Amino acid sequence: MKTAMILAAGRGQRLRPLTDTTPKPLIKVGSRSLVEHHLRALKEAGFTEIVINLCHLGEKISKYLGDGERFGVKISYSWEPPGALETAGGIRHALELLDTDQFLVVNGDIRCDLAFENLTLPDDSAMHLVLVPNPADHIEGDFSLDSAFSPARLCIQNPDGPTYTFSGIGIYKRSVFQGLLDRVQPLAPIIAQNIKLNLATAEIYQGHWFDIGTAERLAKAREAEPVQSIESH
Are 118 and 104 in contact (CB under 8 A)? Predict the structure, then answer.
């Protein structure tokens, strides 16, 4: 797997006024912007073809990153109409650029030290999501796991068992999005459909992960940034 997509089209409404002039993926955590952290990690993991979807202040992202040569990757851009297309709609819109049977997708507004090279899509799965322990601002979580299988199957929340939060990182088969219309579409119903079909698997990541959704979370991510990441060049 050599192809990955970084989701970077969002408005970042809860981070205003910062995101009035700076798109979320270009916000710095440590010495680098969020999208630079992703590009370096993807390059180290062997990903060479990167697709980035753009909408709000997208020209600032494309101008800053260029064609990806200085990061050792090739970047292609998928431009979305005003208001953007949400996650599933954005992936569907970019399918022509995602010329592969399976690909990695990463939210552009998270900070995570996960080693992407360790992720694989099981043969009998259409999607494999990375889950994290529930943060304080999302204590109810998103999903449960059925550990009777290996790897564990993704489940709708089980009120009697532990729940976990979707990290914004996943591997998907191209076929998951091929039948969708090219329009605004959230990802949650697509995940739910694949759970019902027993085609969704998941794993838990216990390491460094932050969702940069608010000013408070951004401050916490900056405080927790590993020293070696801040000092490295």
Answer: no
